[in-house]
User: Fold this.
Amino acid sequence: MRFRPCIDIHNGKVKQIVGGSLTDEKCESKALSHSIIYGSTSDLSAVCNGSKCEKEALSHSDINGSTPDLSAVCNGSMSKAKENFVSEKGGEYYASLYKEDGLKGGHIILLNPAGTKEYELDMEQAEKALKEYPGGLQIGGGITDKNASAFLEAGASHVIVTSYVFQDGFIQYDNLKRISAETGKDKLVLDVSCRKRGEDYFIVTDRWQKFTREKLSFSLLKDLADYCDEFLIHGVDVEGKSAGIDRELIELLSEWQDSCITYAGGVSNFEDLESIRKSGKGNIDVTIGSSLSLFGGPLNYREVVEWFRQHS
Assistant:
């Protein structure tokens, strides 16, 4: 059982968020209101990626008395989330700390959609962290077979993938085989983060916003394990709430012993860590985010590091 620290980056800042609160504004949903306002049927999705499209476009029109060029007034895709903590320090600070304490296998997660200006800001932070701790951190967010090698070359030990593999509600095995071949099985982590629906847990994608039809189970992990080195699993229903772990999910994960699993979500005290250790028979690694003192939480970082050293 190891401590796997994290560097979550959103809108270019290291922060901790409530997992289930993350949303992205979609310009396509604004296209109709724009066409009503301006009497046109432009394909706004081609030129507008921002969350302030209508407001900015309307003020532009009021000032200039003409239908605006939306590509000139709309610059970003500002995704929204309930924030627990926003750091004044950069990704390299946390990477340096983890390196000094010998904590390998932590993850960097880029929380903005790929292809946006905010994602580029996330990347700037991530690159600094990878440069500070080459080979010590994994990275996920917007990764496909086309860019995975670049992340590895930049210093990531592994790439973490969800949405590229889970599309249209199901596992896309062609994509899974493609990216596994590109990175090598030993460099690929599959993020099978999940939310509960009914009596079962289903894998969620696109920054935990979309349910797939893939139910988390022992058999699913067995099928996927042929293509990856590890699994990362956020209990999204409790992620960022510091209100306790998802014990039912932990029990489900404890059945898996064939490769490494890292669990994240809701750890709020040392009793939670002890519960994971016992239920998981010492085989489930753990990430702590919002509850950690590094991110404004009550759990002292040094005490957490020492606890894991004693229980590894």
The chain has two domains: 6-22+81-311, 27-73. The longest helix spans residues 117-132. DSSP finds eleven helices and 15 strands in the chain.
